[in-house]
């Protein structure tokens, strides 16, 4: 039973963003297999996600000249859009009825990590986000092709400036190292040849629209990973995705974020095999295998956004309606994780990196701020003596330790403080 | 090293973060140690300054009389009259006036063409190689982490500023410590006591839960009143004009890190190695302004720090080492930028340093695959730092590396 509880808790916290009220207890009654099926099968319609209106993000056009009144309006509109975009996505994460799609979109955002700071416009980042969502559980080859043709990513990695006359290797290197193959699975010559294949793209800043400029493209033969032909961006990407190392690398990355950064992958290559056809959903199902989920060593720290969305889902909070949304983004910034602003092209760190004393302090304040805006009727209606056990199920925690029980016991008559300690406890901050 | 353990070593780079079990220090810990067991006066102190992203060495120490420099970099070269002349061949980036003035005082050693065999052009891998100090055996620990392990146990011995520990200070079993920037505001009153209960260690904790509890415990070991050290003003630099927003970088985080280091060194913290850093050097496009702004930030911060420390009895004990994971390609790309390259200059700064040039300037007419040839192995510098600054034999820490530069 304890391992069933562990497996179900992991399904909720890792393949979703944590349970809504009552969900975890119902799942325990339903059993592992039925829970897995329901959490991993994406329904045709998600009425929760459908409730979230598309953000009001429009093409603002080129930046007006200095010292014009247009520039002031432009800056106001830009600031508004740059704020609206992460709030829209956080709302989707919090309000979706079925969270696997958002969870995977979130994973891919960290994988193809692009930061709005350099892009400067919200519009191309919004398009990139929709592209990642469209392919989140689809075919990786199609995703990679779409991303090579994504204006925001191209601009982020200077693809815009990669020309036959003077190749810029930034995109080619990261495409192999961080996106498709993994470090050391190619040579420096491969980087240079791939950058030639990736020439010819030009990006319109404000929309991320990609143009192909034949004059900038290198039409000659390139030799990439042993194959020589007149590769272009799309054919070279397909060539990379077809490599065996691609299955290895994507399995490693998903493992790293969903299962463990400390325990290695299964030695039977089962994950790579599940990804033979580059079907992302098959790899996700393989990761949710009971053998893996029941390994007690595979704990993982919730990243700040994951922790926040888990709390918001439990407390039925809509991120964009919090008072104020700017404060919300401020708290996430203090915890060093704001959607659309990864620290670098390698994405966000993991596990202990989120556990500094500075972040412990921010989390305590953030928790108090969220709880103040929540309706705690259900918790208040529960008898104080039963609240700790009740919260353990409501939050989907494997088991509060004796330490945490003792702490919670001290504040059990105060629902707000009780909840604050519960969501800041090691057992909630870490997915067991 | 296999890919997985390499990835583990790269843990703090973001690309593959795992997280070291590094002790997180509080100001109070350090202040207490400074009072009861201050570092003996005259003990050399090392400050590692890491420039993340790959600093363009050719536009840092500019070969301003070499025609090849101008022909290979038509868009991003510095005109001879702009550079800060060091000798007849080389000049500093125009933004580095602070370091130029230290050079004029013979306090700066510039080691040229520094790198390692078989250069790797991945940021994450190359920084791991520099920080491991083991380009051949690719050890899973940092060279200064191994130095920490060669010393008696002391969490104050090596400290990195910021909440995340760089691999540089990570040892196999013991590591340097991390000190978060900025004051911590902690809960008070009876609720604080309840909060503190969450910080107790219990046997049922797994590694990560124990780390979560530790982070709480560290938080609460900071007293409500800010410690005397943090309250102290930073040492005054009376030979510098007070400039508001005078440098291009503005109030940079590097200056903030060094301010904390300055206070703690002045207070007598028993710390022999400090690590600070600045990012943003990955200048694939529109390099000139971005790099000048960053180099200006570094130069201003380091010279200001030097001036501050000059008024303390420990000023003459400090050695700073400035490095980056690689230089950049000699030829500019079409984006007024440069791609990842190989060798670059390393700066050693301080009273103990014998100022001047070391190592050969890599030739622009004799490139290796379009990149500068490495003329000095970074282990020569590490060996000198270990033996002459940290007074520790370098050979074992550097996997048997024997040669060493004479910079001190």
Structural write-up:
The complex is a heterodimer of chains A (432) and B (408). Chain A has 432 residues and is mainly α. Chain A folds into two domains: 47-241, no CATH class; 300-431, no CATH class. Chain A is built from 25 helices and six strands. Chain A has a two-stranded antiparallel ribbon. A two-stranded antiparallel ribbon of chain A has the order 3-4. In chain A, helix 6 (100-111) packs across helix 8 and helix 22 (387-395) crosses helix 24 (415-424). The model of chain A has no long low-confidence stretch (mean pLDDT 94). In chain B, strand 3 and strand 4 (91-92) form a beta hairpin. In chain B, helix 4 crosses helix 11 and helix 10 (253-267) runs parallel beside helix 11 (287-310). Classes of the chains: A mainly alpha (432), B alpha/beta (408). At the A-B interface, helix 11, strand 5, helix 20, helix 23 and helix 24 of A face helix 1, helix 5, helix 7 and helix 8 of B.
Give descriptors for this structure:
heterodimer, A: 432 residues, mainly alpha, 2 domains, two-stranded antiparallel ribbon, 6 strands, 56% helix, B: alpha/beta, Alkaline Phosphatase, subunit A, three-stranded antiparallel sheet, 12 helices, 12 strands
* Secondary-structure-derived class of chain B: alpha/beta
Rounded to the nearest angstrom, the radius of gyration of chain A is: 23 Å
Percentage of residues in helical conformation of chain A:
55-70%
Number of extended strands of chain B: 12
Q: Count the DSSP helices of chain B.
A: 12
Uncertain runs of chain A with pLDDT below 50, 5 residues or more? none
What does the largest sheet of chain A look like? 2 strands, antiparallel
Distance between the termini of chain B: 34 Å
